[in-house]
Each structure stands twice: as C-alpha cells, then as structure tokens.
Amino acid sequence: MKRQRCTLGPAVIFFLAVLACAGAADRPDFSGKWVFNAARSKLQIPVPQSSTFLIEHREPAFHLSRTHVYDGKGDTFAIDLSSDGRERVIREGPQVLHCRLYWEGTRLVFHTRIEMDGKEALNVVQYELSADGLTFTAHESFRGPKLKYDNVWVFDRAQPEVRAVPVSEKVFMLDGLAGAGNVAFLVTGEGVLVVDGGASPADGRVICEKVREKTDKPIRLVALTHYHGDHIFGLQSFPADALVIAQQNMTKNILRYTERIQSERQQLPARIAALEAALGKLGRGKKVLRQKEEEDLARAREQYAFYQQLRIVQPHLTFDNKLSFRFGGEPVEIIHLGPAHTDDSSLVYFPGQKVIHMGDMLFNRHHPYIDRRAGSNTANWIAALQEAQNWPLEKVIPGHGPLAGKEALAEQARYLTDLRAAVSAAMQKGLTLEQAKKEVTLPAWLDLGFPGVLPMAVEAVYRELERE
Ligand SMILES: [Zn+2]
Predict the structure, then answer these.
(1) How far, in Å, from the CA of 264 to the mean position of ligand 1?
(2) What CATH code would you report for 10-157?
(3) Could you tell me the pTM of the whole model?
(4) Chain-centre distance for alpha carbon 98
(5) Distance 226 CA to ligand 1 centre (A)
(6) From ligand 1's centre to the CA of 147, what distance in Å?
(7) Which partner from 55, 117, 154, 209 sits 20 to 30 angstroms from 348, CA to CA?
(8) DSSP string of 146-165, one letter each residue
(9) What separation in Å is there between the alpha carbon of 23 and the centre of ligand 1?
(10) What is the pLDDT of residue 386?
(11) Integer angstrom CA distances of residue 81 from 28, 35, 92, 219, 307
C-alpha cells in the first residue's frame, strides 16, 4: 500500500473529513486527546518535553485540561468554559484571570486578561481544527508589560492504544498501529528481530517502546518485507546499530521512491503558496469553494511537514532469493519467491514458531494493492502463495488486516485468480483499460476493505496480461 497520510484508514479519514466539514464549517468539535507535535510547532518560549490537551467539547460547553511537561515535571491547567463569550474569573495565586471563549468563524478564541500587581497582560489563543480532524493548532499571542511572544502549537490527535499481541511463544504482532503495515517481532535471548518499520517516525518510536515493554534485549535485526512507506517510514526511529535486511531489489526501489518524494517535496512550497493565494482571492464568502481549497491546503502543509522530518533508511544487508540463519537459537528464513506485490517482496518465516509474516503478499480481508511500477506479477504471486501453503504454519501475519491462519493464503490466491479471470474476460470483450477499470467489480469480494484500490489492481493486471 502507498502510505496513508494519516494514522487512520482511508475510509475513516474520509468519514472524519466529512464529519469535520459537515458541522457547516462553523462549529468544529474539538473533543479529543491531543499530543504536542514539537517538529511542526513554532514557539518563542521554551519548548516543553511533551504536552497533552484533553478537550471535552459539547457546544457550547468546553472543558479543557492541558499538561505541559518541563524538566520531567508536569504542569496542569484545567478550565470549564462556554463558547458563548461569557467571562469567567479565576484566581491563581497572585493572578486574576478573566477568561472568555468565543467563535470567530471556524476558530474558537480563548481570550484571557491577566491582572497581577495592578498590571495587565493579554493572552489570546485561537484554536483551529484541520479539515480531516486529525490536527489541532493553537495560535497564541501573549502581550505583557515585560514579556511578548507569539506561538504556534501543533497537536496531533492521539493514536489508539497500540498493543503487542502474542502470536506464538516468541513472536508478537503489534495491534492498533493504524495506517501502517503490520509489524511483528521475534524475541530471543540474543536480542530482537523486528519485521517492518511502521508508516512514520512516530510509529517507529511506538514500535521501539512496545518491544521494550516485552524485553530488555536490544533490537538487533530488522527484516523488511518490501519498500513501501507504510512499512519503512518508521526506521529512522530505530536504534542506529540495528541491521536492516531486505531483498536486493529494494535498493533500487527505495532510490526511485526517494527521488519521487524529493521532487514532490520540492513542489509543495509552490503548491502551498498557490493555494494560499487562491484562498486569499476567494474572500470570506465563498464557503463551499473555500472548503475544498482549505482542505487541499491543510493536506499539502501536512504532507510537507511530514516530508521535512522524514529520513529514508536504506537496507544494510541485501540478499537474492533466500537468507537463512539462526538468531538466539531460533531459525529465521527470509524468502523471496520472485516478483509478487512488488519485485522486492519477501516473506519472513520463523519455522521453529510455525509463524510467517507475509508482508503485502497477503492483504487479509482487504483488496490488495498491486505495485505495477515496482514490477508486480500476479501469476507469480499466486504460485508463491501456493508454495507457502506447503510449509509448516500455524499463524500467518498479513501485511494488512487481522492475524490469520493458513486458509488466508488460499483466499488471497483465489482473489488474485478471480481478478485475473475478470480482467482477462474484459480484455477478450475488447474493453479498453479505462472501461475495464470501471467494469471489473469482483462481486464475490464486495465486503473487502480498501475498495478504492481495485481500479489500480485492475490496471496492474491489465498491463500484466497484455505482456503475457
Ligand atoms: Zn505494500
């Protein structure tokens, strides 16, 4: 799968986007747990180690509790407000705070006049929610007799709890790492082998944390199932001395991918400027037009911020068809059965545990993404799935979707066989590629997730069958 921009699945993102806009763009709901994003914030005051906002917002009631952590010490401020602009007076030691909350368009303004020793200061914070509901920005301006600063605080919606679920005696799978390919790890007396690296540097940090909860042994090996960002963009957060292993085609795939990302990143500032200019010209009135432009702008800014922090890690050790070794007494086999989902697709097999990580050669209960540009091959993919069914296996970890048994391999092979048959039939009827993308719907597989990737899968198979 291509990397999902956010931590939630595409359907959820769409749903959230619709929800966030459906509030007539007037009254967004700020409720949620929000985690400070230091990389994207611009502060003129010391940057806290961490900060969390908890907001319960039932318009007009607004409960806010924020905790800044400086030098390991938490400082919590909590307040109940109403967005009707009514003033609340709070005494905090020698200070008297006159607080008001009111709407300014889609922004909620938290206005505080602070009195102390006969002097006054003004703190005005504008809260803003991104169109997809995943980013919360607080534009703060403080004006006091001696002190003056302007801050932009950026917070991300807190991710659902991630858990390391036991798959076998020594293998765990991470559950709840939304938007990323499935991550698993093998714990041995000599250290930990992790399979895949998550979809973002933040995912990488979570993975390391979850490993630490299970063992004090270090992460020494990382096996990658293929080059897609939702499987490798967390690697920069792994220990620098962990050896990253992948099939040899990954090197060229990552180089090409990195070039594409660089050119996208270079184009983003111009695109952001163009969107800002377009919004400026639209003026305040054109709400429907503004909404789309604002969403595009938020997305472009988010993408740019993501690329700015991203550092792509190349594999340190590559192999051709198979790499077998023992790690902490456990046999490990990393196997490339030829091109499948990509031309660098690997299976990571733990024969002693009877567990396999299939990478994206298995999309369990989801339509598979087929990466034509990276040399996918569905005929060979089906053959590889058939071969893996001959191996001693009890648990099968898919690239996406829930933990499975061996039967999921047969189901994936059946899906790909159906897809090839449907595309072949469309071609025999003389349908063009564009017609086939519309007509091939696979009625037997309507209940699968990621339905949006089906036209791409049809295109990949169409091109493959043209070559056959
Ligand atoms: Zn993939």
Answers:
(1) 20
(2) 2.40.128.20
(3) 0.70
(4) 40
(5) 7
(6) 51
(7) 209
(8) S-EEEEEEEEEEPPPPPEEE
(9) 35
(10) 98
(11) 16, 21, 16, 47, 37
User: Torsions phi, psi of 185, nearest 5?
Assistant: -150, 145
Q: Is the pLDDT of residue 263 over 90?
A: yes
Could you give the dihedral angle defined by the CA atoms of residues 428, 433, 438 and 444, in that order, rounded to the nearest 10 degrees?
Answer: 50
Ligand 1 center from residue 227 Cα (angstroms)? 7
pLDDT tens-digit readout, 47-80: 999 999 999 888 899 999 999 999 888 888 889 8
| Alpha carbons 101 and 237: distance in angstroms, whole number | 39
Contact of 300 with 272, CB cutoff 8 Å: yes
Q: Ligand 1 centre from 67 Cα, in Å?
A: 38
What kind of fold does domain 163-250+313-365+386-405 have according to CATH?
Metallo-beta-lactamase; Chain A (3.60.15)
pLDDT band at 189 (very low <50, low <70, confident <90, very high): very high
Q: Greatest CA separation found in the chain?
A: 86
What's the rounded Cα separation, in Å, for the pair 34 and 32?
A: 6
C-alpha 464/C-alpha 388 separation (Å) is 23
195: CA distance to ligand 1 center in Å? 13
